[in-house]
Amino acid sequence: MSRSSVAWYAAAPAVALPAGHVLVADELVWPDGRVTACSAAPMAAGALSATGHRVVTGPVRLLKEREGAGSGLQAAVARTAASPDRAGEAVGTEGSDGAAVLVAASDAGLRPVVEAAVDSWAQVMGPRAVLLASPRSFCAGVERAIDVVEALLKQHGSGGRRVFVRKQIVHNTHVIADLIGRGAVFVEELDEVPEGALVVFSAHGVSPQVRVEAARRDLTVVDATCPLVTKVHAEARRFAERGSSIVLIGHAGHEEVEGTYGEAPDATVVVGSAQDIAGLELPDPSKVTYLTQTTLAVAETRETIAALKERFPQARGPGSEDICYATTNRQHALQAVTEQADLVLVLGSENSSNSVRLVELARKAGTPAHLIEDASHIRPDWLRDVATVGLSAGASAPPALVQETLAALAGLGPLAVEERITTTEDTYFAPPAAVRKNR
Ligand code: SF4
User: How far is the centre of ligand 1, averaged over its atoms, from the C-alpha of 293 (Å)?
Assistant: First the structure.
């Protein structure tokens, strides 16, 4: 599918290029003055950084084409022609309106790096389609939790009360970095928070033990727990009061599971999969209930529940499923694009349970899939022979990352984007009273 060519140029960067660094252009000015935006730059820079190279990004002016590498700043440019019917144009023709990837270095020792990097992107340049799964990205619980921190930062302003947040408010590194930049202070445990301070509990919820500790330290608590997680906590308390054993299906160690488990630790046992059911010993097989983490794979969880019911026929679950609407909707939407995609990309962080489940789902369907924090995590070899990319984002991944990823892919050639909507979402959770009354 590649319709690209590679040429070497003498070049002048608009940014300083320290010794030992590689330069990736985010904009190219061709010798005749025409300009090409290199929107694939985050991918090219990310791939080089991942292999240990120090990378600078900025605009580059091309001076003249040369036969192979010479002295001074050497820029290798992979480019596509403006349109497919012009694809046969001479290598390196200046002024093309097509896509371009430029990597440069002035250090002769880095020339092989430059050449290999540009070649790897040249091989995957050309037209491509993206099937955009919908719904994707932020859910109502994540929006509410982020809103809580933002509202408190606004209320307390600079020089006011500090806003502490226990654990990541939602599992996404971009969201956390943004809130840190605005003044939020993230801590792992409450003993890192000064007595009497203001602290936010994350969307994943906390155990009653954490609430007791907060009260003991006289902390002002604003609870950003997703209402759908709070519902599971209430079910755990109800089941435990009835004297039932609670089988909590989820990932041991995940914050949400720790919080729910803490509601009834003496009555609860955590199981990860159907395989764990065989070895389960419960005090009274006639009093067994189950709950699930909200962000599990729907199909796998059904298998685990079926195995539980086979072993304990009287096992009872909650009135309605614990796997939340957002997790379910994102999985259905991904399924709708996976079959026709050669590659699936899911935006999300590694500790985001629902994002990881999306990647697993695509792989189970036989489509290669990768979890990416952002476009800089895309590698050229993933895109080889890929005509159609399925793209989604976990419930904690900001929508802007999807747009940035589309822009980066469009930097490799014409991109046809088709949105596949399986359902629409209008769920809204009102903010907690402590935030509402100060608005
Ligand atoms: Fe709430 Fe589901 Fe979003 Fe988690 S993924 S915050 S449970 S809506």
Answer: 10
Asked if residues 360 and 351 have their Cβ atoms less than 8 Å apart, the reply is: no
List the strands of the sheet with 343-347, edge to edge.
369-372, 343-347, 388-393, 128-134, 415-421
39-91, pLDDT tens digit by residue?
999 999 999 999 999 999 999 999 887 765 556 788 899 998 653 333 322 22
Give the pLDDT score at 70: 58
Mutate to test the pocket of ligand 1, among 327, 392, 425, 428 (most ligand atoms within 8 A of CB): 327
Indicate the SS3 state at residue 148: helix
Signed CA dihedral, 325, 329, 332, 335: sign only: negative
Residues belonging to the active site: 256
Q: Using CA positions, which residue lies closest to atom 1 of ligand 1?
A: 141
Ligand 1 pocket, 324 CB below 6 A? yes
Q: Which residues, at least 6 apart from 234, have a Cβ–Cβ distance to it below 8 Å?
A: none
Q: Could you give the domains of the chain?
A: 4-125 (no CATH), 130-137+325-421 (3.40.1010.20), 140-225 (3.40.50.11270), 228-311 (3.40.1010.20)
- 327 C-alpha to ligand 1 centroid (Å): 7
- Residue 436 has a pLDDT of 75
The dihedral over CA atoms of 265, 266, 267, 269, expressed in degrees to the nearest 10, equals: 60
Residues of the chain with pLDDT under 70: 1-3, 67-71, 81-97, 437-439
pLDDT for res 292: 97
| 224 alpha carbon – ligand 1 mean position (Å) | 11
- Rounded to the nearest whole angstrom, what is the distance from the C-alpha of residue 160 to the centroid of ligand 1? 31
Q: What is the pTM (predicted TM-score) of this model?
A: 0.93
pLDDT digits over 123-141, tens only? 999 999 999 999 999 999 9
Q: What is the pLDDT of residue 28?
A: 93
Q: Does ligand 1 come within 6 angstroms of the Cβ of 96? A: no
